[in-house]
Amino acid sequence: MNKILTTLVAIMCFSFITNAQTLKQYQKAAQQAFENQDYYAALDHYDIILQVDSQSVSNKYNHAEAARNFNAYTLAEKSYEAVMNSEQVSEYPMAAYHLATVKKNIGKYEESKMLFQQFLESSEGIDNQYTQRANAEMDYLTWATSVVATPDLEMTVERLGDHINTPFSEASPMEVDGELYYASLRFENDEDPYLPSRPVSKLLTSKEGNTGEFINNLNIKERHTANTTISNDGSRIYYTICDYNKTTKIPCEIFYSTKVEDGAWGPSNRLPQQINFDGYTATQPNLAYNDETGEETLYFVSDRPLGKGGMDIWYSKINESGSFAEPVNLSDINTIDDDLTPFYHTPTQTLYFSSNGRKGLGGLDVYKIEKETSNWSDIQ
């Protein structure tokens, strides 16, 4: 009997040591993934860690941080709330701020406002930029509550059918003469060493409501292609080619292709250095055309130096020779946060874009601004 008890104790001790070693390995991997901005992997690791050690407040906070950065707001909300309800909450002074942001992004405006107020009441020693933003968010939330209470019932949103949409992500649609160009993130990457393997985005086109067809000349195996825009005369198409790097970030560059005699698109050409600034992303190209002057302008998004912060919208005039002027930061629009997805509607000379740095309903909202000769109107 004593031998049996001794054996059981030894097994339990070995199991504990093994679990402890494994837990440390997961924590190290989770921390490394987070530092690499691979928030999906970090979130996956912290999920496993919490199954083993569900009482650790620090692990719950790290889980919430990974979930928030991965935009998994429901998961983030649950973990931040566990931290806020713990006895160690004073050790995490930013928890109330981040939970307030998460609450706003999922439409819980009153709860968000209370949390921002709670953060402001205990924000001594916190970076001033967060207190300034929290005060601004208090006003934004009052506005958001009134907007949601009075929706615009004249506007309708219609989902395109299953000939376009799939269980995967479809994005960046553009219709030209009855032909829809768009990207779909549903293609396998057999060469990806990352586990689990990551899908890649490819460009498709659909005519007259038919199922999307692969654009052979533009898509490159094992690389992302997306974000098309076509010149006013229809002779040139711009798009992005992107790659996964060691993290979940996907750096991109802008390319163009010229239409050849049979109507197909010719070889890919990388835009020059002043657009594709080395070491930084250039993406989401969109062309604006001026009917009076015949000028075309390329709008695009980049995190290149001398911006306002985050991703900014830039523009470059296209010369008659097809060369590009030095890009200019669209400072009238950009904020210290992310400003994205420029779309210029030529008939009304209106630029639509997305931003999470302005008064909004939570996360990235859509805004518009009209071009008035050489100036811009107020942002709406």
How would you concisely characterize the structure shown here?
The chain has 380 residues and is α+β, with helices and mostly antiparallel strands. The chain contains seven helices and 16 strands.
How are the SSEs ordered, and which strands pair?
Blueprint: H1 2-35, H2 39-52, H3 57-69, H4 73-84, H5 95-105, H6 109-121, H7 128-149, E1 169-176, E2 179-187, E3 200-207, E4 213-214, E5 224-230, E6 236-242, E7 252-258, E8 269-270, E9 282-289, E10 296-302, E11 312-318, E12 328-329, E13 339-345, E14 350-355, E15 365-372, E16 375-376
Antiparallel strand pairs: 1-2, 2-3, 3-4, 5-6, 6-7, 7-8, 9-10, 10-11, 11-12, 13-14, 14-15, 15-16
